[in-house]
Amino acid sequence: MKKWLLLLFVFILVGCTEKLPKFEEYTGRPLDIAVIGVASDVRETNVTYEEFSMNDLLFIEFSKYDAVFIMKEHLEEASAVEYAEVYTSSKIPFFFIESTKGSFPFSNEDALYSNSQERGGGTDFAAGYMPSSNPQIEGTTYGFGLYNDIKNEDTIKGTYSIIFNKIQEIVK
Q: What mean pLDDT comes out for the span 14-39?
């Protein structure tokens, strides 16, 4: 009887496990990404990371990069007032990895990450911000979630592939 219950439990467990789709790898042009913190592992061989500290952000030559990733460990510091102008005046997008508060605390000099509200309606894995070339217009924001909010190696790498495609689309 115990064997049948165990077998039934395993059958139900396997039946309820969600099958993940095959996530397409980014195959576009080579990308150079500046990373504040430690870069995540990705599948792509055509994406190059260069790691920096938060203090380096004020001195990075952005024209050498297609985007900047700011990793979760640096989000609070990245929302400090001295960095807001960096984000809003740059010609490349910024991606705030694992920001639960979107990109607002970074592009608004009066906001701090710790004091900003959580974003409602779903969980973003990364929040993107692309400054506008027109100072009269706010920049464009992007949100990138994990497939069905499942956080594992496949969904994280799949989301990075989607972000790389967006970078190729918006950075010419």
A: 85
